[in-house]
Amino acid sequence: MTPTRNTKTIRVEDGTATVNGWVQDIRNLGGISFLTLRDRYGTVQVTMPKKKIEPGLFDKLTTISRESAISVTGEVKESNQTALGLELIPTAAEIVSEAGVPLPMGVIDKVNVEMDTRLNHRFIDLRKPDVKAVFELKSLMFELISEACRKNGFTQISTPKINSSGAEGGATLFTVDYFGKEAYLAQSPQLYKQILMSSGLDRVFEISPAFRAENSHTTRHVTEFISFDGEMSWIESQDDVMSMVEIIIDYVLKGMKERGAEQLEILGKEIDVPALPYPRLTYEECLGIVRGKGLNLKDGEDLGTEGEKLVGDYMGEKGFDMYFIYEYPEEEKPFYIMEKDGTPYSYSFDLDYKGQEISSGGQREHRIDKLISRIEKKGLNPEDLEFYLEAFRYGMPSHGGWGIGTERLLVKMLDLPNIREAILFPRDVTRLSP
Ligand code: AMO
User: Fold this and answer.
1) Is there a catalytic annotation at residue 214?
2) What is the 224 CA–ligand 1 centroid distance (Å)?
3) What was the pLDDT predicted at 111?
4) Ligand 1 in reach of 36 Cβ (< 6 A)
């Protein structure tokens, strides 16, 4: 039987082989025609000298529309004219599914297609090797995150995405009608990963969708993203959390560089792996930096996109792409973050990568009385969070954790211009389909 090969596994020694793929291009030069067959890994040239190919087969393969899905069987011959060093002389072909004409957008044409058009026809956009490469790299990133977590004793968890309360503030909650009751899509696994700290599963991680009703039309906000969350018990301070985050990020970046080399080459990108430990700046220090660059933020004010970018420029000039900003004003941070007693600050941090926040985290308030005061201070009703608070009443260890926006991490790693480039089917204020 003829072996089925792809453009990565096909060899001259195969003698004959079947290759499945899409018709990328056909060139008819009179006596000879060439069909470029593309699959997941690359392309192979199907060479058709008119005199040597059975006429019905020749006609079939030279008139088929571009991007049709076909299966070609033929002799594998050495060739010094092709990148693979071989070509396929067809003996049989099956048209698995013919592509309509015209195509909604081109695959290899060198015209700039609007992002909206690309997203509307994402399956065809993904036929472009560089678009596909991003998602192969995203898959590798998830593999590396899981590996790094397991190596450090973290257990993978899954927590509910339809909930009775939010955790990250009311403004970005999506409401769902849950059999007549009001429910919310999870903004993060925050409350559940913390509850689990009281269970003895003392290091947990989750990679899951997070939903934010974020009415922002920017290149870094979407309404559904994949969050990588971690939570760990028995910490002495938030330093323990920052150290863990940097160990994991370092593992991921090194792994991407090594194991993603082929895809990175398709993209023409290199990943720089910042040295450990990542610099740590206090929020106060950052205020000084941005003020020095002309942005007059008040004490306690959020650094915002502009401030983050200015700190990024400052750190970039010093050769640092990745750095922590810690001890934010407690007013800026959610109720679950521990206050730095006697100061307006908190045990919280962000990890910024090339001038953009990719992660937030911190030490949590595990003392029930203080936690309840913080909930009230934020204008929330502790009764609505009773399912969460109960876990703090029967022996809750000190703990802390982080949430990383995986697409933001990937965007910065690959210098992509828009978060939508890192999401197969993005959801934003105006997009709900495909
Ligand atoms: P935070 O709300 O800062 O923290 O979110 C964590 C990280 O998630 C990413 N992110 C987003 N990515 C794309 N689009 C959005 N709309 C969006 N919103 C957030 C960012 C951000 O740094 N529970 C805490 C984390 C913790 O303390 O453990 C939380 O969710 O990269």
Assistant:
1) yes
2) 11
3) 81
4) no
